[in-house]
Amino acid sequence: MAQECLRVSPQCNFCQRGCARAPSPTPPSPFSIVSPSQRVLQKHNKSLRRQVDDHEALARLLHTWVLSQQPASEPSTRAPWNHSTLLANAAGRRHGLQWLSDKVYHNAVASMPRAAVFGASVQDAFRFTLHTTPDHDDVAAMETHLQHTFFANVKDVARVIWGCEHPSSPLKTYVVATDELVEQVHDRLIYNHGVYQGTGTDVRRIVSWFEDAHRIVITFTLLTEDECFPVARGQIRTHGFCWVIVERVTHSVSLLRHSVLHFKPVTADGPASLDDIGRMYNLHRGASQPRHAFVEQIRSAAEAAARDRYQTLLANLSQVLDL
């Protein structure tokens, strides 16, 4: 046994010296211990980075696509058929009355955040624009904007305007001389038929009331076609859209904004001719008169007629509200 100990002793000493030279294990750093919550955060961070990279790649792709496109054309003054046609089918008709009204309402609301026609001014104002065809020798549309302040509550102003649109109302202060109730979907959605003062043009209007927190919007969809009531021979029908926005300024002060877009009127044979439009304003083109000169004559007469109609409208509304 003593001999065996002597034989193994050098090996034990060698192992001890090796252990003494070996570095002691480094104690674990508290920062090297990753908790489950940290693992979740790291995973979420990687996911966010991937999303950012994906969005950046998409933005670059869209930027390249936009640069490759041709410049957009000017907004068309011609309305697609399904924007102003009412079907004969009962279900489609009821849906169309609401859908067309909603479309005009959303256009009206969408126009509010952008620069107003009259800028930041709340002064009474009127603006008329006649849009011509690209070669300037025919009428494409007529656009009118009106702004006026009433010293009355917003609901009172809106009710008076709405009342003018109902045939049973004794108030007839609007620009349509006659009104006939065609359909009533509910108390805030009606369809009527009438004739414009002065021009004598036929008009079929879907009128709807929308009430928001600080304003009331009344929309008018002027139909191009109603399958139940086609344009009669010899008749000229006005079509387009318009809205009245009555905004609350104070409890007893309201700001009215009225926007109208009349497209080129139609007849039983299609779009009205330039001579047809001239006759609406008691104008007749001479045999040698250039078309573009006649267009300017129509512009002047139409603006004067619109200004006169709306001045009368505002005076009548003010008179009713003062009662």
TrEMBL record:
Designated name of the protein: Aste57867_5295 protein
UniProt lineage: Eukaryota, Sar, Stramenopiles, Oomycota, Saprolegniomycetes
